[in-house]
Write a structure and sequence with these properties.
The protein is of the alpha/beta class and 441 residues long. 47% of the residues lie in helices and 17% in strands.
Length: 441
């Protein structure tokens, strides 16, 4: 096993942390400083770093002996000054001492391989780093703390118990067979219920990891870009009196009550001979098809035209909320006068005065329904749970008629659950997961 190193902090700051892990750590550290860090583990010590007769930096060093380190290996950190020249000199010295640059996610991958984390906890590390809203960070932290693993192990324990009972019934049909088969349906129903509850929560909580996507659709000058700017509190999208200013989609993430919400501004929807504007309209519709919620903006200060009526018809099958914009101006129409809006949720807003913005944000939360104490936010985990549920349903179908098949189905369920924790997962899947990590983590 190589001794690896990587910068664990962004370059250019006042302080930079260089992480080193592997069996050669003690020798590498001895080649950089005379301080005896091994005698005082887990203490931050001041040390002069030098190599090849040249002083590199006055730094702080902390040594973590195996197995009580993040990776489970001998490990140390150098807390250096963050200048480019200093870091390059330390980098070159580490190379000369036999350490190798770490691959993305290699520290956490070693932690997983050494049993410090299971796979779901390791994935949560990257989710926590990438979290852009409070609830997202909270969900990732719960997964890092092993809460998801606990839920999966509870299902595993139930399935293992059922599998043991089936095996006993096959081996000793006269002694325990009748009792096991009488209880089998209840056992399988319980396992299916546990999995279904986790899957349902996962689909509701995915927005905490992936973000809740809201697309703004409307005719030119309906107020889409002005609304985005008002929500952001700054001028992000270009706003002019000329229609057709926006030609492409524009994404901005805004945390709302701790939940990440991705707003997408789009080109005005209308028939046009302008090739660039037509492409913008195509992209607007594509964004709407992939949205969690579509805001259909109608200009409240102008009488509805064919563009507005067509937009209502074309979005009728979408999950939508109608926004009546420019509420600070005299209204040119009333909701009661538009049959197409019968039964629709309509929110009146003004990007100028801020009227209706609180109601708009509340509406998003109603549709998103974020899970406060989410355990599952990762589609890979949801898919594994669905595979496990499918195996349990197969076992229910086989029932008492084919106990051997029931046993096979239950082992398939355990294999699917093992894909979440890493107990039963292909090496290629593990490699793919850690490739997404940043270097130094």
């Amino acid at each position: 096993m190589d001794t690896i190193f990587a910068l664990a902090t962004p370059a250019g700051g006042a302080i930079a942390i260089m992480r080193v892990s592997g069996p050669g750590c003690v020798g590498v550290l001895a080649g950089l400083t005379a301080i005896e860090c091994k005698a005082r583990p887990r203490q931050l010590l001041r040390a002069a770093l030098a190599y090849g007769g040249h002083r590199l930096d006055d730094a702080m060093v902390v040594y973590f002996p195996a197995p009580g380190s993040y990776t489970g290996e001998d490990m140390f950190e150098l807390h250096c000054h963050g200048g480019v020249a200093v870091l390059q000199a330390v980098h070159n010295a580490l190379l000369a001492l036999g350490a190798k640059p770490a691959a993305p996610g290699e520290f956490t991958k070693r932690a997983f391989l050494n049993g410090k984390l299971d796979l779901s906890q390791a994935e949560a590390v990257m989710d926590l780093i990438g979290a852009q809203a409070r609830l997202s960070a909270r969900a990732a932290l719960r997964q890092m703390q092993g809460k998801l693993s606990e839920a999966v192990r509870a299902v595993e324990a139930h399935v293992i118990g059922t599998l043991g009972a089936i095996n006993a019934a096959i081996d000793y049909p006269d002694e325990v067979g009748e009792e096991v088969y009488a209880d089998l349906s209840c056992r399988l129903s319980c396992a299916a219920g546990m999995l279904s509850a986790l899957i349902e929560q996962g689909y509701r909580a995915r927005v905490l990891r992936d973000g809740f996507r809201v697309v703004l659709l409307g005719a030119p000058n309906a107020g889409k870009s002005s609304l985005l700017n008002a929500l952001l509190g700054r001028r992000r999208a270009i706003v002019t009196a000329s229609p057709g200013t926006t030609r492409d989609t524009l994404d901005e993430l805004i945390p709302i009550s701790g939940m990440p919400v991705m707003f997408t501004d789009t080109a005005g929807i209308r028939q046009t001979d302008d090739e660039a504007e037509r492409e913008g309209v195509t992209r607007a519709w594509a964004a709407a098809q992939n949205a969690d919620l579509v805001f259909v903006l109608l200009d409240g200060a102008a009488k509805p035209d064919e563009n507005g009526r067509a937009l209502l018809r074309d979005t009728a099958g979408m999950r939508r909320v109608v926004l009546c914009t420019k509420a600070d101006m005299p209204a040119a129409w009333l909701v009661a006068d538009m049959p197409a809006l019968a039964g629709e949720k309509v929110v009146c807003v003004s990007a100028i005065t801020g009227e209706g913005l609180d109601a708009l944000l509340k509406t998003i939360l109603e549709y998103a329904a974020p899970v406060e104490d989410a355990l599952i936010t990762n589609q890979r985990h949801i898919s594994a749970l669905e595979n496990a549920l499918g195996a349990i349903e197969n076992a229910r179908a086989h029932g008492q008629t084919d106990p051997d098949c029931v046993g096979t189905d239950l082992r398939d369920a355990l294999s699917a659950l093992g894909a979440i924790t890493g107990n039963d997962v292909d090496e290629s899947v593990i490699d793919h997961i850690f490739e997404r990590f940043c270097v130094g983590k």
